[in-house]
Design goal:
The chain is an alpha+beta fold. The protein is built from one helix and three strands. Helix content is 14%, strand content 16%.
Length: 93
């Protein structure tokens, strides 16, 4: 009988925790600090358009089959391209 109040206190304590949301790796962050939100007009274009551009932070071009680390860097611009070298999506991370 004494275990029921203990479980009730534990449940109330855990429900009071305010945990921040976790950004899943599959959720593209276009509003990070890398500037992806302003580059969405490049989606659909050939990846070569990036050659004439300058960026403030690191840029990672992700091609089909590339191994990609799961570390999150809000300053890194990720550009995902398809087999035809067309930009599929642009996001921070």
């Amino acid at each position: 009988m004494r275990l029921i109040p203990l479980f009730a206190v534990a449940a109330l304590t855990l429900s009071a925790c305010d945990l921040p949301p976790i950004l899943a790796p599959d959720d593209p962050d276009t509003e990070g600090t890398c500037g992806a939100d302003g580059l969405q007009g490049l989606v659909g274009q050939h990846v070569s358009v990036l050659g004439g551009m300058s960026f403030d932070g690191p840029v990672r071009v992700i091609r089909p089959g590339d191994a990609v680390t799961m570390d999150y860097n809000p300053d890194r611009l990720n550009v995902e391209v398809n087999d035809a070298q067309r930009i599929l999506r642009i996001f921070c991370g």
